[in-house]
Amino acid sequence: MDLPGGIYNRTYAQDMAILRTKTHWALFIALLAFIFTAPLYWGQYALHVANLMGITVIAALGLNILLGYCGQISIGHAAFIGVGAYTAAFLTARLELPFLVGLIAAGLIAGFVGLIFGIPSLRVKGFYLLMATLAAQFILSWVFLRWVPVTGGPSGITATYASIGGFVFKSEASYFYLIMVIAVICTFFAKNLARTRVGRAFIAIRDNDLAAEVMGINLFSYKLLAFFIGCFFAGIAGSLYAHWIGHITPPQFSLMGSILYIGMVIIGGIGTTLGAILGVIFMRLLEQGLLMLAPLLSAAFPLMETAFASALCPLVFGIVIIVFLIAEPRGLAHRWMLLKSAYRLWPFSY
């Protein structure tokens, strides 16, 4: 990260710090204050959208670790979220285990399922790995639909309210605090992962796996670790989603959802933690805008088919992803970095 003129790093600790200046700390504290005071002045609809964004950010961070850092494409991320959701719902509703136990178990089981489908990554990559993870999406969707004693089959399963220490999270505001605390922890972990030995190994594998192997990096171990971490995040997001939404069914974890997550990471900026967050915010706000626009279009144009209005979201999502791939392939995070650099260099842009 570039520093403003006149500010220099004098120690390795300063060079490695995420927040380097007093301005960074002030903006960071202001952001946290804004986030955690939001329920005091936001309505129920805004809190609902914010909760959905928080859960999606956790899942997108996991996919960004797998795809952006390690370069292992996965088109079954929604199915791994479903594994976490069904695990948490079954453990808390059927076995009456505490919420925190179900939360951790959801992450671990989703991570181990990810390990199973990550095994082909040693031998295949690119399009062939995409097909392997696509198989995971179809297999897990079939399990959600057919394993009736655990998942409830087509009718789904109802999850209990989340509770910690006797406090039950029932309202959107209470869930907002729970989701945002976990999202902040996951963001902190994802941000620092790239600065560790594991993160550097992931990046080396992404850039050139043959060169990484020559340098002594165990490809199989690190690729499986990337699948585990990415799917662990997905399981955590699935657990929060199950308790927040209350009732889960197989269609909530479809192939379209997996493609949407890839689109979020692409639009935000692959390989950056900020990119995953910006991509989620952009796509979720776009989704809410389109959901509001579809009824207005149907009312304004009575001859328009209802199916066209309902298909508006996937249509626009596809167009937006194509536009970003052509016009801004490095995503919103790269554009933000350019804006910051321009601000720091102004008026001496040369």
Tags for this entry?
single chain, 350 residues, mainly alpha, ABC transporter involved in vitamin B12 uptake, BtuC, two-stranded antiparallel ribbon
Task: Describe the fold and architecture.
By secondary structure, the protein is mainly α. The protein has a single domain, classed as Orthogonal Bundle (ABC transporter involved in vitamin B12 uptake, BtuC), CATH 1.10.3470. It contains 16 helices and four strands. Strands 1-4 form a two-stranded antiparallel ribbon. The longest helix has 28 residues, at 273-300. The protein starts with 11 loop residues before the first helix and ends in a 5-residue tail after the last helix.
Instruction: Outline the biggest β-sheet.
Output: 2 strands, antiparallel
Number of strands: 4
- Share of residues in strands: under 5%
Taking pLDDT < 50 over at least 5 consecutive residues as the criterion, the unreliable ranges are none
**Given this structure, which CATH class is correct?**
Mainly Alpha
Radius of gyration: 21 Å
Question: Tally the helices: what do you get?
Answer: 16
Order of strands in the sheet with the most strands? 1-4
Instruction: Kindly report the CATH topology.
Output: ABC transporter involved in vitamin B12 uptake, BtuC
Q: What is the percent of helical residues?
A: over 70%
Assembly state (oligomeric): single chain
CATH architecture grouping:
Orthogonal Bundle
Whole-number total of structural domains? 1
The structural class is: mainly alpha
- Principal-axis shape: globular
In round numbers, the mean pLDDT is: 86
Q: What is the N-to-C order of secondary-structure elements (H for helix, E for strand)?
A: HHHHHHHEEEHHHHEHHHHH
The end-to-end span amounts to 19 Å
